[in-house]
């Protein structure tokens, strides 16, 4: 399983290359979403290590904060895609 996650890390630069090359948005979104899987696993592992060394209260706070990082990133990226598509209308995009 760990080898698969490490293999998926190649999708991070692939996603950047696709975005810079102007590839189709669904393809960029798919590769970015798949690239988040190993990054979320790494973040989860790092959070577990820090939580085990810092005690139960801080550990619970870290887990509650960082366990939803991938979901928050996907949610925010949806806002930016919506903003890009609606440039014809005056709108304040999220910053």
List keywords for this structure.
95 residues; mainly alpha
Question: Overview of this structure, please?
Answer:
With 95 residues, the chain is an all-alpha fold. The chain has one domain. It is built from 5 helices and no strands. Helix 2 packs antiparallel against helix 3. The longest helix is centred in the middle third of the chain and has 30 residues.
Question: Briefly, what is this?
Answer:
It contains 5 helices and no strands.
Structural class: mainly alpha
Main sheet overview: none
Oligomeric state of the chains in view? single chain
Query: Any idea what the shape is?
Result: elongated
N-to-C order of helices and strands: HHHHH
Number of helices in the DSSP assignment: 5
Number of strands: 0
Cα(first) to Cα(last) distance is 36 Å
Give the uncertain stretches in residue-range form: none
Would you spell out the secondary-structure blueprint of this structure?
Layout: H1 2-8, H2 11-21, H3 25-54, H4 56-66, H5 69-85
Helix pairs in contact: 2-3, 3-4
């Amino acid at each position: 399983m760990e080898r698969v996650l490490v293999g998926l890390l190649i999708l991070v630069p692939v996603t950047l290359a696709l975005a810079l090359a102007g590839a189709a948005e669904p393809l960029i979104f798919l590769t970015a979403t798949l690239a988040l899987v190993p990054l979320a696993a790494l973040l989860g592992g790092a959070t577990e290590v820090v939580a085990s060394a810092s005690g139960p209260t801080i550990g619970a706070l870290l887990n509650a904060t960082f366990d939803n990082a991938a979901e928050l990133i996907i949610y925010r990226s949806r806002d930016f895609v919506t903003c890009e598509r609606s440039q014809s209308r005056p709108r304040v995009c999220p910053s």
